[in-house]
Amino acid sequence: MTRSQVDTVLRWLETRDLEDEVCLQSMQPEFDLSACGQRRLRKIRRLFWSDPGFWSQVLVHSEIGRIVRDVVGPHAALIFHAAFMKPGRIGSRTAFHQDQALWESNYPDALTIWTALTPCHSLNGCLMGYVGSHLGVPIQHQFVKGYEWHSSIPDAHFVGQKPSLYEMEPGEALAWHPLFVHGSEENRSNVDRKAIVAVFTNASHAGFQAKDSFLLAEMERIASVPVDRIVT
Predict the structure, then answer these.
(1) CA nearest to 99, candidates 70, 127, 62, 58
(2) Contact at 8 Å (CB) between 90 and 41?
(3) Topology of 3-223 in CATH?
């Protein structure tokens, strides 16, 4: 993403960060809680479906749309779209997992694109991952005591292995296969670490199903109509 696109997305997210929980319910919010009871937004989902016009412009006019069409193909559909807010000092870790293990349906051709909106480095919980893990098989996930967000891969699986750190600047992105093992540490800095993630898959496969889906081709149609809110 360009700097102007990043700034536009940040403004959109800041508006949601100020909304009360009732207004955010359709976006399935998660919150981090500090030791003194401070409550901050950790994650919101269904970004696209809350504002299709805005997000069609963002996804199509950034490099994301081109990459998705090249890699996934003409029948690409968005199936997940979320923001990770990871607030300063209280932003919790994301345990190591494979995306496919957290999905109800199988999406072998899915492409996840994770875009940094703020600087992401080791102090504020940048992405970490195991290089080559996408070439393996699905790993058994389980719920671990003290980690409530989702099932994950037990630490014992990684004995003798060390993950790579992916430090990024605003607008930079990583893309990965649904079996790529990844996670992030807590935010130990005073500054929020923000990012968005979009997952696309081939909707032309027999038996394709998803709770939410939206074709890239339809986004391109919407994005062809100028929208004053987006800077491209």
Answers:
(1) 127
(2) no
(3) Jelly Rolls (2.60.120)
